Structure formats: C-alpha cells, structure tokens
Amino acid sequence: MPHNELLVFGALMLTAGLLARFGRRVGLPTVPFFMAAGVLLGPGTPGPVLIEDPESLHLLAVLGLVLLLFQLGVEFPVKQVLSSGRRLFTAAACYIGLNIGAGLAFGFLLGWGTGEALVVGGALGISSSAIAIKILIELRRLTNAETPVILGIIVIEDLFLAFYLALIQPVLSDASSPTDLVVQIITGFGFLALLFVLARFGARLIGAVINSREDELLTILMVGLVALVAGLSEELGVSEAIGALMIGLVVSRTSVRERVERLVLPLRDAFAAAFFVYFGLGINVADLPAVAVPALLAVVMTVVTNLTAGVIAGRLHGFNQRATANIGLTVLGRGEFSLILVTLALGAGLDPRLGPFVALYVLVLAVLSPLMASGSRYLARVLPDSLLVSNWRYVREETIGTSCSHLDQVVVTEPDGRECAECARVGATWVHLRLCTACGTVACCDDSVNKHAGAHFRESGHPIVQSIEPGEDWRYCYVDAMLVREPAGGGREPERG
Amino acid sequence: MGHKVRIQELPGIGKRYDAEAGAPGQRVSVVVRGNGIRDLYVFTSDSPDPDAVLELTEEQALRIGAILSGTFFTS
C-alpha cells in the first residue's frame, strides 16, 4: 500500500473518473460509480487496498458535502417554486408524501431504531435531481409536455430536503443527555433563525464581504465563507449540511449570485466526487449480503411508490399514458441526497448497517432507473385509461397541447379594482370582468360589447386571464385556447367569457 | 415575448423556446441550458417524438445562429 497521500488521492480520483466514464457510455449515472470506486479500493474489500485509513480524506469529503448543499442553495429557484401552480404543488406533495411515508414505514419495519427510520425515510424518499435531469437530456425529453412537471416536482423536493434536514436534526446530533439535547435544539434553531434573518436582510452585507471583481478572490472568499458557516453550524449542533444550504440561499440573494453559480461548479464536482469515493471507502463488502434483502425490497417499494405518484401527477395534469409513465419512471434515481443523509447519520453514531444498506440501494436503483425510464413506453401500453381518465382530453399535438405552457407567466392573482378601466373611460358597461395575470389589468369579457380582455391579449401578448367574478376561480389561456384550471363542476368546453 | 415564440422555464435546466416553422406540426424547440449548451429539437410531423436532436455548444450555436440570421457570410 502506497503511503504518499497525493499518490493515493490521485489514484482514487482517476479510478473513480474512469469508472464513471465507462458508466456514462452505457447511460448510467456517475454518483454510484464514484462510490463503487471507493468500495473497490477501500480497506473493506479484498483486492488492492489503496488507502488503509479513509479518515485522511475526511476534510476533502466534507468539503464536497458542504459544496453540494451550498450549490443547491445558491441555485435554488425560489421564485419558480412560489409561482408554480397549485396543481404542481399537489402533485409534488403526493410524490413526497408517498415516498417519504413509505420510506418511514420501511425504516420502522427494519426495526433498527427511530432515528434510523427517519434517516431511511429521507434516503429512500428524496430523489436525485442530477440523475433525473441527465435522464431527461439523454432520452431527448426536454420538450415533452410532462417535463416541466417532472422538473417542478424535483425542485419542490429540493425545498423539502432542506426542511427534512432541519426536522431530523435532533436525531443527528450527538447529545448525551436530554438537557443537552434541548440546549442543542434551541441553539440550533436560534442559529437557523439568525441565518434566515441574514438571508432576508443581510444579503447586501454578505455580498459586500465576498464581492470582488476578480474571479480568483471571489472563489476564495466564497469557499472560506461556506466552510466557516458550515463549521460554525456543526459547532452549534446544527448539521454542516443545513449551514451550507442556508448560506447558499443567502448568497443567492446577493449581486454575485450568477458568478458564484459559475465558479462553484467545478469545485463542487471535484470535491463531491471525493465525498462519494469517501463514502464508498467506508463500506465493507462483507456487510452487503446481510442488507441485500431489505435493500432489494426497498428498491421494489420505491418503484411502486413512484409509479403511484406518477399516476396521480398525470391524472392531475390530464396527461396521457405515455407522459404519466415518464413522470413515474424518471424521478426514480437516488443518489447524492441519500448518501449525504446517511453520512450525517453515521457521523452521529447511528446504526452502521445504514451505510451498506443505502449503498446497495443506490447502486441497484442507479442501474435500474435509466433502463426503466428509457423503457417507459412499455409501461404506457399497459396503463389503463381508467387511471387517468378524470380530466383527460384528446389533444392532437400532445407534446405541447395537453398542458398550458404559460403558467410561469402568472404573476398577479388579486385584482386592484373591480371595473373595466377602458369601459369606465368611455362610459360603457360590461357583463363580466377578467384579470390579466401577467400585468394585473382588469378588463371586460368577450360576452361584453367591447371585449377589452381579448383586445388586451392581442395588444400585449399576455396569455392568461382569470375570472374575478364571485365564486369563479378558473383561468383561461388565450394562446393555448384552453382552460388552465377546470371550473367548479369541470369538463365544460373552454369558455371565452 | 414574440407572437410566434413560446418561452417556458425549465427549473434546474434552463429555458425552452418553441417556434412554429412552416407547415402545421413543424416546429423547432430550443432549450438553452444554464451552462450555455443548446439542445435543438426539430419536429416535422405531429408525432410527439422529435425527428432530430442536436446538442450544440454555445460556440456552435452562435455560429449557426449567425448563419440563420444572415449576419455571417464569406464571399
């Protein structure tokens, strides 16, 4: 076994990279291969052992974990989550509820303990954004009707991850007595509250601290800030993961956001790979057979819950079989978040079986998920109409027609006034009022004499109007010529009221 | 937003632009990813599957764009 640290690290990274490149050739995700390189070359596996004590990689690995979450925080599309429609929220809530719920149930059935069950719930329940996005790109599905829904679910899931990390924090802390635990929870939440306040009011200050016109300095200040905040969180009993995520959110509100997004990527890639390798190094192959059955059962359960959630999302959005199958089978991959959760759990001294269990689970799903996603048409053929028929309508151009693609332009939902300004100006009357959801203009409907809402669309191109008549909450998209949400009682022809 | 071009956010990836191109069912969709890569999807029939997909680097995309817009020519 070589003793030169540089030599060891180089050999590990190169092996991981080459293995992952081989995997990419056949369309497999990278994360499990980095992990596999660690398993193969680590002390727990017969054959070449590159590194006897994985702890010498610890700092690099932690940096990887911290940068992964920091980058998530920086890129977090807060605006898009807040403006995503109620339907998408419902779909995502079903997805998360089913997966986390089943994961928790599975965790408790394993009987490893309550803390372990919570970790298993998160590890089985939260999908890998990176894997899903790569699948969408590789299978040429970026322009499919269901793709925005899939991406929306993933984004909302990322938000949920932050909450889940905070929620299971008490489990991951290493408090020795109940008083200790209470003190930790209080300081922890106090620190989180401080970071929230910082995100809300102090973004300018943080921006001023790390801002530099030179990329070199910005990179260094950024890494320093992230590591410092993450380390401080750890000291205060909040996990370094949450600290990194929160400081990412703070930075995302500063003027340097875009440059940080660009600069952090290569750093994150290198250190995150080190983190995955490090995780693999800690896995002993001899422990795998003992957890094989639960891991495989967990895989089966994940496939079932994802398909169920996919059908619900498809039904909510009025998708056909094909799109529904794609939703269920694309969000299947598990990766970075599962490994992060388990690493935090192992660091807190929870049941060591979590490591091999999740490692095996992630590996099996990594191979399975791209295969299943690319074969989704076989599933589409056997999905019965009755599952999806609730508000399914045949639309000829299914890739662009079944779902309105302008929902992202809904900005205004509350009208300022209750009169059609144009009509009021010329002293005319109207039948019903419509609100332009892009700019807030209130105008009269197409049953009125002057049809100002329609005229407003032709002038401005603002696609979606909303009825502001009492008791009505539907929206209509002029461009797609469809109701965006069914009115109460549903199933009517689009009404150009 | 232009009259014949639709824009859609793809969170985590970038933005998608759809443009009609001639006969019904013919359209071009361009996805501009956050890292500058452009995915060019070409549809020539009503089928939901694209007939061709090109993954262009930013440089390639700019060159092709210049040709299409008529600003790039040599004698």
From TrEMBL, chain A:
**Domain UBP-type: start-end pairs:** 402-497
Its name, as the record gives it, is CPA2 family monovalent cation:H+ antiporter-2
Q: Which UniProt keywords apply?
A: Membrane, Transmembrane, Transmembrane helix, Transport
How does this chain sit within the bilayer?
Answer: Multi-pass membrane protein
Q: Does the keyword S-adenosyl-L-methionine apply?
A: no
Name the GO cellular-component terms: membrane
Q: Name one Pfam family in it.
A: zf-UBP
Query: Which family is annotated?
Result: Belongs to the monovalent cation:proton antiporter 2 (CPA2) transporter (TC 2.A.37) family.
The record's InterPro entries line, in alphabetical order, gives: Cation/H_exchanger_TM, Na+/solute_symporter_sf, Znf_RING/FYVE/PHD, Znf_UBP
Localisation per UniProt entry: Membrane
One GO biological-process annotation of the entry reads:
proton transmembrane transport
Transmembrane regions: 6-23, 30-51, 57-76, 88-112, 118-137, 149-169, 181-203, 263-285, 291-313, 325-348, 354-373
Q: What terms describe the molecular function in GO for this protein?
A: antiporter activity; zinc ion binding
Q: Does the keyword Lyase apply?
A: no
TrEMBL record, chain B:
Q: Which domain of life is it from?
A: Bacteria
Question: What InterPro entries does the record point to?
Answer: KhtT-like_N (IPR058776)
Give residue ranges for domain Potassium/proton antiporter subunit KhtT-like N-terminal: 4-71
This chain belongs to the protein called TrkA domain protein
Tell me the classification of the organism that encodes this protein: Bacteria, Bacillati, Actinomycetota, Actinomycetes, Streptosporangiales
